[in-house]
Amino acid sequence: MAGRASQQVRGPFHVRTNGQRRQAPWRDRAEAVWRARRPRRVLKYFSSNATNKVDGKGRVSIPAPFRKVLQGEESPILFLMPEINGAPTIVGYGLSHFENLAASLTRMNPFSEEYDALSDAVSGQAHQLPLDETGRIVLPRELREYADIGDEAFFIGKLNVFQIWNPAAYAARRPGIKEMARANVDKLDWTGGGVARRVGEGDA
User: Fold this and answer.
1) pLDDT tens per residue, range 116-138
2) pTM (predicted TM-score)
3) Which spans in the chain are helix H?
4) Which of 197, 178, 180 is nearest to 189 (CA)?
């Protein structure tokens, strides 16, 4: 409207009216403080998939969604180990999941054969890897040979962990994985995590 002062926001605590800088109304300042103090939600789970190039030195980029999960950890270090059940894949996880595994192991009898085997498979075979400034890691030769990874690596999120596969090896297993998923979808607990009822219950 003619004659009305034009107003532009300039940051959370000041506005400009007709070119003059003045303090924003108290409600605007209060909202800005609330937004600044509001806890940020971080990604907790590894999801999605990607195929990335691996160079001659074993360097490969961790997919961006996975990096966001690692950045939400107390320390963004990455742990990699061979899959414990013998599948030809590398398992990756962050610090919090490694601590959960360690806590589970420390509750076992440290002199038992079971502890000896599991601690070797988990902590003894785990590689601790930093990410460089571009989000790359160097896959250890031992792990590349275990998973038969050449010039490409297939990443797939598995919530608390992710896996790194030879793309062809994963593609060969994919039909069986899909069939098993269809056969076991009824085992998902839809009532957890704040969902009030199972899908379909009470629907017209």
Assistant:
1) 999 999 889 999 998 888 899 99
2) 0.72
3) 26-37, 64-71, 95-106, 113-119, 141-147, 167-184
4) 197
